[in-house]
Amino acid sequence: MTTVLLVLFLLVTLALIGVILIQRSEGGGLGIGSSQGMGGLMSGRGTANLLTRTTAVLGTMFFALALVLALLDRGTGARRSILDTPPPAAPATAPAIPAMPAVPTN
Description:
- The protein is built from two helices and no strands.
- It has about 110 residues and is mostly helical.
- It has a domain at about 15-20 and about 35-75.
- Helix 1 packs antiparallel against helix 2 (about 45-75).
- The longest helix is centred in the middle third of the chain and has 31 residues, at about 45-75.
- It starts with a helix and ends in a 32-residue tail after the last helix.
- Keywords: Cell membrane, Membrane, Protein transport, Translocation, Transmembrane, Transmembrane helix, Transport.
- It is a multi-pass membrane protein.
- Its main location: membrane.
- It comes from Sabulicella glaciei.
């Protein structure tokens, strides 16, 4: 169940990024949101309304899926964060002392 929701969440996220990028901003954006970019199929205002509604729907889906995934993950008692796990114990062995070379006597 979680895997299906994660895949859906990824698809919604990618669609939301794409819709936001093709919207016409004050600086022009990618230029697809104007009537020239749609090939005259829709007017500039119609395209803007469609993209605004699509962004609103995808944004709502994004937040709803994020909330559902967070609530589903909350029920598991497993530690998921690296900060929750204790650090590994260091070995208690003493460092090896190097052997002293024999000093020749004359």
